[in-house]
C-alpha cells in the first residue's frame, strides 16, 4: 500500500500555497475543488503523484505556479524577467524587463538585490559553458538574501547524488556568484540565514549550499517552451527559429517535481503564455493510478532513453515500456 509522505511544517506550507496558487486560476467563485491528486510513496521511484479520482483524457489536472524562474540568456528583454511571458514592443512599451505591474511588483524584493550586482562575468561563464542551473541558483540566492524565500525553500525536492568530481566542476560558477555579491557590497552577514525553528545558521553562499541547490535543479528544473502566443509572434519566431533558442527559460515547481517519469506517459505538462504550468491527462486515468510525465524525448529507442535518464537524472527506468524492451 502507498503511504502518505511525511513532510515538515514549512514544506507543508509551501505545498499548500502551491496548491492554492494554482486553484485560484480555475475555480469559479464559491466552487473550490482541490485537484484530483495526492503525493504518496511509490514502490520503487520515491514519491509520486496519484489520481484520487478518475480523470478523463485531455482534462486539465491542475496548474502550478513556479517557485522560481530565470530567463534564457539568449532571450534578454524579450521575455518577462519574472513569469517568462514573451514581451513584444506592443505589449510592454515602457517596461523592458517585466510584462506587467504585477510581475514587476512580485519581483521587487529579490530584483532589488539582483540589480545591485554586476552579473557579466557570471553570465559569460554560463553562456560559454551552456549552463542554465547556475542562473536558477543566482535567482534563488537573491530571493534568500532579500528575504523573499527561506534558505530551505527547495529542500523538499529530491537531490541528485553528486560525485566529488561533479562538485569540483561547480567551483568556478560558485566563485563567480560569490564574487558578484561581494563586489556589490553584500556582506557575509547578509548572506547568512538563520533557521530559528531549528536553531541553525546557514551560510547561503557556501560551496555546500551551491552544490545542494544545483543537485536539486539538475533533477527538478523544467525547461520552459511556450506553446501559445499571438499568430504574428509565432510567425516571426518561426522565421527566426534557426538561430533563436526555443526555450524562454527555466523554472522550478513544487508539485510538478513530484511527478515521476514514464516512457509512455499518461500526463503531460504544457506552458501556454508564461511559466505557469498546466498538467493535462493524455489518456483516461483510473482512480489510484500513478500520474507520470516524460522527462526526455520518448521517440528515441530504449537504449538511448535509458542512457539519457541514467546520465541526466540518475535512475534506471523500469517503466512498462522499458521492461517490454520497446
Ligand atoms: C523529479 S523527481 C520525481 C519525484 C521523486 N520520485 C521524489 O521522490 O521527489 C525525479 C526522480 O524520481 C525518480 N524517478 C522518476 N521516474 C522514475 C522511474 N521511471 N523509475 C525510477 N525512478 C524514477 C528518480 O530518482 C529521479 O531522479
UniProtKB/TrEMBL annotation:
Q: Which InterPro entries match?
A: H3K4_H4K5_MeTrfase, SET_dom, SET_dom_sf
Q: Which SUPFAM superfamilies match?
A: SET domain
Any matching Pfam family? SET
SMART domains associated with the record: SET
Lineage, top-rank taxon, reads: Eukaryota
Record domain SET: where:
35-296
Question: PANTHER family in the record, alphabetically?
Answer: HISTONE-LYSINE N-METHYLTRANSFERASE ATXR4, HISTONE-LYSINE N-METHYLTRANSFERASE SMYD
Name of the protein this chain belongs to: SET domain-containing protein
Instruction: Kindly list the organism's lineage.
Output: Eukaryota, Viridiplantae, Streptophyta, Embryophyta, Tracheophyta
Amino acid at each position: 500500500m502507498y503511504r502518505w509522505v511525511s513532510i515538515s511544517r514549512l514544506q507543508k506550507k509551501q505545498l499548500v500555497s502551491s496548491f492554492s496558487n494554482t486553484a485560484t486560476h480555475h475555480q469559479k467563485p464559491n466552487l473550490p475543488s482541490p485537484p484530483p491528486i495526492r503525493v504518496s510513496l511509490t514502490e520503487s521511484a520515491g514519491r509520486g503523484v496519484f489520481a484520487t479520482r478518475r480523470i478523463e483524457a485531455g482534462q486539465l489536472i491542475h496548474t502550478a505556479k513556479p517557485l522560481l524562474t530565470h530567463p534564457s540568456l539568449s532571450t534578454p528583454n524579450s521575455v518577462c524577467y519574472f513569469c517568462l511571458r514573451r514581451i513584444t514592443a506592443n505589449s510592454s512599451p515602457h517596461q523592458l524587463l517585466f510584462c506587467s505591474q504585477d510581475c514587476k511588483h512580485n519581483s521587487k524584493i529579490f530584483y532589488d538585490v539582483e540589480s545591485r550586482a554586476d552579473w557579466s562575468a557570471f553570465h559569460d561563464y554560463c553562456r560559454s559553458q551552456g549552463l542554465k542551473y547556475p542562473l536558477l541558483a543566482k535567482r534563488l540566492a537573491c530571493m534568500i538574501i532579500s528575504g523573499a524565500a527561506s534558505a530551505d525553500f527547495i529542500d523538499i525536492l529530491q537531490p541528485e547524488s553528486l560525485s566529488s568530481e561533479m562538485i569540483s566542476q561547480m567551483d568556478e560558477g560558485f566563485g563567480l556568484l560569490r564574487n558578484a555579491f561581494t563586489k556589490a557590497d553584500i556582506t557575509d552577514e547578509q548572506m547568512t540565514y538563520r533557521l530559528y525553528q531549528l536553531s541553525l545558521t546557514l551560510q547561503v553562499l557556501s560551496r555546500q549550499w551551491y552544490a545542494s541547490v544545483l543537485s536539486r535543479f539538475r533533477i527538478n528544473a523544467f525547461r520552459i517552451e511556450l506553446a501559445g502566443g499571438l499568430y504574428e509572434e509565432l510567425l516571426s519566431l518561426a522565421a527566426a527559429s534557426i538561430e533563436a533558442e526555443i526555450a524562454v527559460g527555466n523554472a522550478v515547481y513544487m508539485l510538478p517535481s513530484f511527478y515521476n517519469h514514464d516512457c509512455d506517459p499518461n500526463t503531460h505538462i504544457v506552458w501556454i503564455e508564461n511559466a505557469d504550468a498546466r498538467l493535462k491527462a493524455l489518456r483516461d486515468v483510473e482512480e489510484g493510478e500513478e500520474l507520470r510525465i516524460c522527462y526526455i524525448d520518448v521517440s528515441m529507442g530504449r537504449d538511448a532513453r535509458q542512457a539519457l535518464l541514467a546520465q541526466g537524472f540518475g535512475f534506471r527506468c523500469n517503466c512498462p515500456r522499458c521492461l517490454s524492451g520497446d
